[in-house]
Amino acid sequence: MSKGRKSGDPRSEATRLAIGFIRWLAILGGVVAVVQFVAIVRGRSWSSNSADPPLEIQYLPQITMAQPGAGNSMTAVDLSWWIRLSAALPGLLQAVLLLLAALLLVRILRAIAAHRSFGPEVRRDLSGISLLLILGGVAMALLDLLAVVLLTQTFYPLDGRVWERFGIELPSVPVFLIALGFVASAFMYAIRDGADLEKEAVGVV
Length: 205
Fold this sequence. Notes:
Keywords: Membrane, Transmembrane, Transmembrane helix
Protein name: DUF2975 domain-containing protein
Number of strands: 2
Radius of gyration: 24 Å
Low-confidence stretches: 1-8
Structural class: mainly alpha
Shape: elongated
Strand content: 5-15%
């Protein structure tokens, strides 16, 4: 018997490396997202040397600039908690979507390594990635719109004595994530067609 790699072995070196890379990337991204989320909701940045200092307004994701006027010491702590929460939610949702998509991608890689590229589990997981990214991307856009509305109501009309320069981003749409969702959907249909061709080939033989 040949001592080469067993056919269909899902623990091939390339697959294990790819799966390990995706897992660590997802974990790292998740940790960073959670740290940022907690910091924004608390309204304070992290410090190991002293008490956590207040987070400056300009570090909220939707704020483009926030140059305070003389005597203005307003920070994120001074905002209502629900405004801070609304500002932090889009980033957290993005991290959750990418983490779930990464888990499904790991399952797809395992199936491909096991020579089940046209199996129903691959189509099911690709469909899951597609729905996650498309619907999740729309949800992110709506959450960002809510945050922008709340921040606009809070800071406008501007008082020139309080803020010398101030700007809020327009609501953002995660076009790249949504586009990836449609790409995953296209791959799902391509794999379904491949599975049909495979069945036809087996029938001919």
